[in-house]
Automatic annotation (TrEMBL):
Keyword Phosphoprotein listed: no
Keyword Metal-binding: yes
Pfam families reported in the protein's UniProt record: MBD_C (PF14048), MBDa (PF16564), THAP (PF05485)
Signal peptide start and end residues: none
Record protein name field: Methyl-CpG-binding domain protein 2-like isoform X1
Record's keyword terms, sorted: DNA-binding, Metal-binding, Zinc, Zinc-finger
Record-linked PANTHER family: METHYL-CPG BINDING DOMAIN PROTEIN-LIKE, ISOFORM C (PTHR12396:SF0), METHYL-CPG BINDING PROTEIN, MBD (PTHR12396)
GO cellular component: nucleus
InterPro entries assigned to the protein according to its UniProt record, in alphabetical order: DNA-bd_dom_sf, MBD2/MBD3_p55-bd, MeCpG-bd_2/3_C_dom, THAP_Znf, THAP_Znf_sf
Length: 329
């Protein structure tokens, strides 16, 4: 770390932001500097340095003649360098900024000081060129804009407070525009079906319904045309599979249509259909089922009528008068 050779100057090369200049190497120029910078304590050498605060504008192009001298034939000290640059800090019109952020707040958004070096007080050309290129690219990008994928009809912008429709004129009357959702937010949400384990109906084996007296109810008998499929199937498994398919599926029940189910049911099994072979319902089956329903309804009607008549007889018996002998007693 080198200190400035000028008397009363306490600037150091590694601490302060000002530049430092060596004494000239030629004897003639060296004597000129030595005459201007005179110290009683020591003599200068070619390794001695002078900070840029004692030069006009901090430059040294014109040699030692640019070094200013005070009235007492000495160099101006570093504390008076404001007089070299012609700035009086006591002037009320002078603005003082203690950092680059404070300067940016004062200038506002109208000035670009990103390429300004506060320590040296200069603009960095390379950084300024990068900022210009970036600003040009931003302007080009804003000019292009984004493609409008909306195919809906525009609304007429008039002074009326009511929106008026606009007629869309096309070259081909039969042309159709298909909605193509390009973005994720435009795509409809798809309801994913829940996962089912193969042959999960076999878990219901051994379970049966019972009445209030804990007596097991007799299960219904399936038609002979419905036959089970899969490993170790039983009538209970087949009935549970059909019941679950009727309650959970909205599609028609046709059974396993693939012929490969018999060979390898774990691969060719259709999980949306019950564990039974493919079957068809004929008109004869529908007619037999209707007749069975009609007969059961007639039996139910007879039972209900008998119950109503029995209840009416009980009411009549309760409202009939008592015999005369029982009244005298």
């Amino acid at each position: 770390m080198v200190m400035c050779f000028v008397p009363n100057c306490r600037h150091y090369s590694e601490r302060d932001s000002c530049k430092f200049f060596h004494f000239p190497k030629t004897r003639h120029e060296f004597d000129k500097w030595k005459k201007l910078i005179s110290r009683a304590d020591r003599e200068p050498s070619q390794h001695s340095m002078v900070c840029s605060c004692h030069f006009p504008d901090g430059k040294r192009e014109h040699g030692p003649a640019v070094i200013l001298r005070s009235p007492n034939t000495r160099l101006l000290p570093a504390s008076d360098r404001r007089l070299i640059r012609g700035i009086d800090p006591n002037d009320p019109n002078v603005k003082k900024f203690r950092g680059k952020p404070q300067l940016a707040r004062y200038l506002g958004t109208g000035a670009d000081i990103s390429s300004f070096d506060y320590r040296t007080g200069k603009l960095i050309p390379g950084k300024l060129q990068k900022n210009k290129i970036r600003l040009r690219n931003d302007q080009i990008g804003q000019g292009k804009g984004k493609p409008d994928l909306n195919t809906s009809l525009p609304i007429r912008q008039t002074a009326s407070i009511f929106k008026q429709p606009v007629t869309k004129v096309v070259n081909h009357s039969s042309s159709k525009v298909k909605a193509d959702p390009h973005r994720a937010i435009d795509q409809p949400k798809q309801m994913l079906s829940s996962l089912w384990q193969l042959f999960w109906e076999k878990r219901l084996q051994g379970w049966s319904a019972s009445d209030i007296t804990e007596e097991i109810l007799k299960s219904m008998d399936l038609p002979k045309g419905i036959q089970g499929v899969g490993p170790g199937w039983s009538a209970e498994t087949l009935l549970s599979s059909l019941a679950s398919a009727l309650h959970t599926s909205s599609s028609s029940i046709t059974g396993q249509m693939s012929a490969g189910v018999e060979k390898n049911p774990a691969i060719w099994l259709n999980t949306s259909q019950p564990l039974c072979k493919a079957f068809t319902v004929t008109d004869d089956d529908i007619r037999k089922q209707e007749e069975r329903v009609q007969s059961i309804r007639k039996k139910l009607e007879q039972v209900l009528m008998a119950d109503i008549l029995a209840s009416a007889e009980d009411i009549v018996d309760d409202e009939s008068p008592l015999p005369e002998k029982m009244e005298e007693d």
